[in-house]
Amino acid sequence: MILESSQSGKKELVYHSGQYSWRFDIQLPPQLPPTINESHRYPRARYYLRFVIDKPWYKRNKNETLYLTVFPRVNLLNNPQCLMSSIFGNHNRKDVTLKGNINKLGYVPGEMITGTLEIENPRKILLKQIFLSLIQYYQIECNAGKETVIQTILPTIVNTKEEYIMEKFSLAIPLTYLAPSYEFHSGFKHTAKVHVNYFLEFDVKAEGMFTNFGVSIPITLATEYNTNPNEHQLNHATNLLPNSISYYPEAIMHDKYPSSNF
Q1: Is residue 30 in some structural domain?
Q2: Which site from 12, 86, 110, 206 is most exposed, i.e. has the minimal number of CB atoms within 10 Å?
Q3: pTM of the model
Q4: What are the residue boundaries of the Arrestin C-terminal-like domain, all occurrences included (predicted)?
Q5: Which domain holds residue 163?
Q6: Ordered DSSP codes for the chain
């Protein structure tokens, strides 16, 4: 996009000393994969605007880069299965059984994940610790990675041999920029694949060899939980790069940009 150019017959623009501004509008496609990872980390999906003042050949061009935080709107109300409770369970070779339930499978940043945990330990094996974590898994083309969003140790289940334990648990999702759960298979010059998924994971550390085990529950992280499509409930971006801003494209469907599966 050219904001201003020299008039016909003139080789260059001439401005006197002062401040100048130009208004511009760029309509982003409604379906874009979310920003993933900061600019210095790989793999990554990032967006930026680059402004260039094209000077004569004997002078160095002036340019500035402005990073954008982009993520699609994902509304939990469009995924009613995410609002249902879910049960989970697993066991190890020492007959330690972990089972429980969570109140729902879909959340937005700032919400609390809550549920009930039940442990059966008939052989009174020493349970050292249970880690509870929210993990982000992402894949950009053939490159994959994961990030621990938040992790805690269940405080009441530490170095215990209790035969039966029933506890409530909770984990607060940080109110910060988190890419929503998303699957993108599209592109412009070529088709790109970007996946973002979240899992709630219990990691049980028990005494003995090959006795550790875990449970992984897929959850959906959305950007809004709203019945009014004209009102946004978007995560507030924090800890972004100093020269970054946020942008939230509208969920307008178009044949050129097919919708993604959530």
Answers
A1: no
A2: 12
A3: 0.76
A4: 92-226
A5: 76-225
A6: --S--PPTT-SS----SS-----------S--PPPBS-TTSSS-B-EEEEEEE---TTSPPEEEEEEEEE----BGGG-GGGGS-EEEEEE-TT--EEEEEES-SEE-TT-EEEEEEEEE-TT---EEEEEEEEEEEEEETTEEEEEEEEEEE-TT-SSB--SEEEEEEEEEPPSS--PPSEEEEEESSSEEEEEEEEEEEEEEEESSTT--EEEEEEEEE-SB--S-TTS--PPPP-S--TTEEEE------BTTBPPPP-
